[in-house]
Amino acid sequence: MKLKGDFFKLKEYCQTATGMDFTIEINPEHYIFEAHFPNNPITPGVCIIQMVKELSEEMLKRSLLLKKASNIKFLNVINPLENKEVTFSIAIDEVAESEHKINAVVYKNEQQFAKLSLLFKTLNS
């Protein structure tokens, strides 16, 4: 299930020394938050992983499949009522043919929400 466009919108992006930064806006009215959790919405970890995947696909211009999650740390919850806009800082290294190691940090100002190290397989060239 793609989240871009309904669950989140891309506000801006910029090239960095190690990859790209994407500022996104989360839709606090999305139906996911009806169950996670009513009157106290918290962005599910699986949605954060999916957003990293979709933003990485934009960088690579290829479809990706998660092969391995070697290190995922959720440091603070993302409540879209309090933090509607957050930034995903993504760095991609090709580790083998058709495999990419992706390191991502999700933050706003000085507050970090998540750090992820993921290995993706490229589905198409």
Notes on the protein architecture:
This protein is of the alpha+beta class and about 120 residues long. The protein has one domain (about 10-120): Hotdog Thioesterase (Thiol Ester Dehydrase, Chain A), CATH 3.10.129. About 15% of the residues lie in helices and about 50% in strands. It is built from two helices and six strands. It has helices at about 30-35, 45-60; strands spanning about 10-15, 20-25, 65-75, 85-95, 100-110, 110-120. It has a six-stranded antiparallel β-sheet, covered by helices on one side. A hairpin with a 2-residue loop joins strand 4 and strand 5 (about 100-110). The radius of gyration is 14 Å and the shape is globular. The mean pLDDT is about 95.
H/E element order: EEHHEEEE
The CATH class, by name, is Alpha Beta
Strand content: over 45%
CATH architecture verdict: Roll
CATH topology: Thiol Ester Dehydrase, Chain A
Query: What's the β-strand tally?
Result: 6
Distance between the termini: 21 Å
Question: How many independent structural domains?
Answer: 1
The amount of helix comes to 10-25%
On the 0-100 scale, what is the average pLDDT? 96
Rounded to an integer in angstroms, the radius of gyration calculated over CA atoms is: 14 Å
Strand order of the largest sheet: 1-2-4-5-6-3
Number of helices: 2
Kindly report the name of the CATH homologous superfamily: Hotdog Thioesterase
Net shape: globular
Identify low-pLDDT runs: none
**Which class do the helix and strand fractions yield?**
alpha+beta
The quaternary organization reads as single chain
